[in-house]
Amino acid sequence: MIRRLVFALLLTLPLPAWAVTVEKVTSPGGIEAWLVQDHANPIIAMEVAFAGGAAVETKPGLVNMMASLLDEGAGPYDSQSFQGKLEDLSIGLSFHAGRDDLRGSLKTLTDNRDTAFELFRLALTQPRFDKEPTERIRGQILAGLTRELQNPNSVASRLWNKAAFGAHPYARPVNGAPDTVKAIKTAELKAHAKTWLSRQGLIVGIVGDITPEQLAPLLDQTFGALPASHPAIKVSEATIATGKTIVEQRDIPQSVAVFGAPGIKRDDSNWFPAYVMNYILGGGGFSSRLTEEVREKRGLAYSVYSYLLPMDHAGVLVGGVATQNARVKQSLDLIRQELRRMADAGPSETELADAKTYLTGSFPLSLDSTAAIANLLVVMQSDKLGIDYLQRRNALIAAVDMDQVKTAAKRLLDADNLLVVIVGKPEGVTSSP
Amino acid sequence: MIRITNCLGSDRPLAGHRPYAYIGKTVTNESEHDMRMWRDWAAMAALAITVALPAQAQVFNPVTKTLSNGLEVVVVENHRAPIVSHMVWYRVGAADETAGKSGIAHFLEHLMFKGTPEIPPGEFSKIVARNGGRDNAFTASDYTAYFQNIAADRLELVMKLEADRMRNLTLAENDVTSELEVVKEERRSRTDNDPAALLQERLEAALFLNHPYRRPVIGWPGELAGLSRTDALDFYKRWYAPNNAILVVAGDVDPAKVIALAETYYGPLKPEHLPPRIRASEPPQAGARQITLADPRVKQPSWTRLYVAPSQHSAVDKTQPQALEVLAEVLSGGATSRLYKALVVDQGLAASAHAWYDAGALDQTTFGFAASPRPGISMDKLQAAMKAEIALLLKTGISEDEVRRAKTRLKAEVVYARDSLHTAARVLGEALTTGQSVADVEDWPNRIAAITADQVNATARAVLSDNASVTGLLLPAAQEARQ
């Protein structure tokens, strides 16, 4: 019993503050970057976001294929010599397509800094799209698409997006579909790179062994030659379909279910209450209600979860569970019951307090590498959170009150109107008519 | 370049028994955009592969101390953020299970969250979360590990919790029953729902003729279903004791204070008389095996070959493990590496082609190859090309220049490994549970630096023998398997 008293005491200690200085660096040419200096290791990590992801593409899979080819030959270097330089200097350089943006990542040892930024510049401004790498990457993307077909989790996610977003570009997978990827032409890849890799909306986050004085000229050298602007983004707000169940029959021992509903965007004033509410519902691992009811009490699943996904033109709340075919109905009924319970009564005071302690105290845990912090610097800028966000963030969570959480729960959780996709041979569940 | 990161969907099978660490529990990753639980264990399993590259002297520079009850304490300072990674590694895993009880090491790992006289079932993780921390655990063939990542000023709390469950686990029958259902679902998710994982499981069973590395960590379905509370408690009492554990603490800490705290919380725990880790020995390998799994669910076929190889601990010639690490880097270290260049770029036959090796095993380990065809390329053609590449390697060997490039990259990996405190904790814990010492880890760059092309070629010829191999073909059901 003494032991438990000590635990109780420890629980009441305030969590430590964490001070990280984010500096704004503006180059002579007017390019801005956010920087966190860290000279403990001779490493620099940079994360960059360009406006215009898969949502603006003319052919599904175009941005993804372009991103995969930017580091496959640029300027004077063909694919093998470009990759050979990266390997010999241990430089990590890659590009990644998202729905709303295109990300570039660079990681280098301080010794190779100038070469690393030069290769990054070449990839952005003079990508070659030679025939060999283009066909090779196309083959790899097609093989990846085929592989996704044998993974029930991928199949369920794709079907859910398709049903949820309908005619909106978010319905399309970022990596496209076999027929569209086969049809992508080199001229389209080149045109997209030239049009969309621009300084308008460019976001740069840098962490590590570099000073503002060293960084400023590098920003101009790396990004200065990009066009000043990109075309207008004409993506409409998405409407999310609800109230439907879709069963995709597969002969597998365990069904994979994805459920979801309209969620909330990051700039919504109710974001933090919704975030806290979701943590209690299904975001909080072993502290979440869904895990408690579905996994811990009944052993129905290994994994059950929910999360909020905010995008530029939609927000969704998505969850999932995987369970043997005979238990699908029971599991989904339980999940609906938990959504209803949260919408009707909200969390308890203890749950709310625990959630806030976790969400504030755990924040520094995600930032254990230079690359992770560089990514956060990009998110802070793209979501317009402010350069002092790291100082303010925990206060924003601490300020969330019970009424706000209840409001968020009522707004987001409509147990009878979920969009549910099940891949497997579920017993007792059929597709909606 | 396309990088395959999701090990589930990847045709790179997870390198045999060792890196296939099972994350018994799941946690969510609290980021600005919440992620699914799913991703966490995939990321952890991928980490297990990428951190097969330990440190150089002057890298982790751990402070170590063995308590009088036998607990080894290893502390690594990293002051980037006011956080700490607290891990307890037990020198016991699936390869230490008794025959017929496959899966018990991993099942016990799940049950370790089911309470002690002080901490009610399920409360462990909740207490950690209420203090802003995340916890989880994982099991592999040679080890079982538990960790909490938390604010540095909460180290005392998690030490107290972890020390408590090292000796005081109590299990209620109903908690055991429901958790067994969870593990059965875990097996369905990881293995039964995925033909590539089913094949991988069978390849390992075929590769090791007698050694328990042939056993899947999660357990064979029939044996898993029969595991009981008594089985779990027997295993717990036999293996969970301070003298069979290693405490690794990495983060914003003062080593002297960590050791003092360890004395306070772990110091009073009674050591056990431990059974030796005697595993059934592997007879000489004498014959190539092949397994073909044709399944209607398979859409993208793949080819895999595994060889029995010496580990850091099992190798008689201690240059062999580093020679094999250099070999894997030459073959598979990036887009200009041998396999990728030959199969994917020059011949245009494969969508992916890999090789891998992990030296961290108590007994023998595996050296593996895998490839998956580009659309329109037959498996016969792909197989022939992979076999030809292995034959060429054995016939003409690799060059000094290839070795030099690989060594440069491996050296840089050491600097990157220092970036994350979790990497340090993971590398050291793995090494110490697989028969290596802290000095072995710290000396790794020197051993790599000393490797020559002649050593790599001699080791490749000694290890990559068809007679010590198994080949796996993953095919759509309609496609006939051909030799």
Descriptive notes:
The complex is a heterodimer of chains A (433) and B (483). Chain A starts with a helix and ends in a 9-residue tail after the last strand. The N terminus of chain A is likely disordered. In chain A, strands 1-2-6-3-5-4 form a six-stranded mixed sheet. Chain A has two domains: 201 residues, Metalloenzyme, LuxS/M16 peptidase-like (Cytochrome Bc1 Complex, Chain A, domain 1); 181 residues, Metalloenzyme, LuxS/M16 peptidase-like (Cytochrome Bc1 Complex, Chain A, domain 1, 2-Layer Sandwich). Chain A contains 16 helices and eleven strands. In chain A, 44% of the residues lie in helices and 18% in strands. Chain B has 483 residues and is α+β, with helices and mostly antiparallel strands. Chain B folds into two domains: 244 residues, Metalloenzyme, LuxS/M16 peptidase-like (Cytochrome Bc1 Complex, Chain A, domain 1, 2-Layer Sandwich), CATH 3.30.830.10; 188 residues, Metalloenzyme, LuxS/M16 peptidase-like (Cytochrome Bc1 Complex, Chain A, domain 1). Helices cover 41% and strands 17% of the residues of chain B. In chain B, the strands form two sheets. In chain B, strands 1-5-6-4-7-3-2 form a seven-stranded mixed sheet, sandwiched between helices. Chain B has a five-stranded mixed sheet with strand order 8-12-9-11-10, sandwiched between helices. In chain B, helix 4 packs parallel to helix 9 and helix 10 packs across helix 13. The chains are: A alpha+beta (433), B alpha+beta (483). At the A-B interface, helix 1, helix 3, helix 5, helix 6 and helix 10 of A face helix 3, strand 6, helix 4, helix 5 and helix 11 of B.
